[in-house]
Amino acid sequence: MVALDPRIHPFRPEVAAKYLQGQVEAARFVEGQRYAVIEPVADLRRAPSHGAALASQALFGEEVTVYDITEEGWAWGQLESDGYVGWLSANALGPPGPAPTHKVSVPRTLAFPRPDIKAPPLAGLPMGARLTVVHQDERFAVTAAGWHVPLAHLAPVCATHADFVAVAERFLDAPYLWGGKTSLGIDCSGLVQIALQTAGLPCPRDSDMQELALGTTAAFSELRRGDLLFWPGHVAIARSEDEITHANAYHMRVAVEPVEDAVRRIGATGMMPTSVKRLAPARASSG
User: By CB atoms within 10 Å of each CB, which of 33, 35, 117, 166 scores lowest?
Assistant: First the structure.
């Protein structure tokens, strides 16, 4: 059998997705059941424990195919957006509702119980969260759940941003968090993924996957805005030929750094850049 990556293929010795039958070994194969994320952010962990390493995060409105739920309340499944596999709290999931119509287009917004910004907010929603809007006025969009979200913070679910580099820069100074994908904590590949998805470009979750899947190889000496610069286990976004934007554990935040400084600093640990990947021209903005 061909070895499959368990990060994006749902299989364990105990259970596996039905569509992998014949490709992996497991005690049982199941079709899986679709759920939606009903919390603003749901941590996706590598094991069914709150103490387990954070692998990624799922955002409000995202759908998950669940293949196993433990008695302790952990759901093991695969995210629809990027195919990532892991464990989530079953309390963070609910039945899928009406199709999302809008998405959060700013790093973070608030959902209010009524059209009043002085009312205590019900939730803080991250960029990329998906909502079903049933009606709107000049200031607020009202969701199927009755949340009132500032209209200026939303975009149609199909809208794209023309400049993903500018989107990434909206996360400047967000704290570094391994596995994070929001302004409350984000890692290098999470920043790239969120920015590219906002531009309408599919993007894998981890930096090694991104290096293999995205763009075409370009020369380091010809680095330009929008290129992705890779090291082993790390990725940065070129904001110009001289500077990069990246979430990193050295600054412990999303930071802008001279390329020369980053290459020298990371090189001192024994790691040199492995590639520069150039993406196709960004699509025209529709929102």
Answer: 117
Distance CA 34, CA 176 (A): 31
Quick one: average pLDDT of 181-198?
Answer: 98
Using pLDDT thresholds of 50, 70 and 90, give the confidence band for residue 283. very low
Question: Which H or E element spans position 262?
Answer: helix 259-267
Q: Which residue has the tokens 């892991």?
A: 86
Distance separating alpha carbons of residues 267 and 270, to the nearest angstrom: 5
What 3-state class would DSSP assign to 159? Answer: coil
Can you give the pTM of this predicted structure? 0.95
Report how far apart, in Å, the C-alpha atoms of 104 and of each of 5, 82, 238 are.
31, 18, 25
φ and ψ of 186, to 5 deg: -150, 150
138: left (phi over 0), alpha (psi -120 to 50) or beta: alpha
Structure tokens at 188: 């290098």
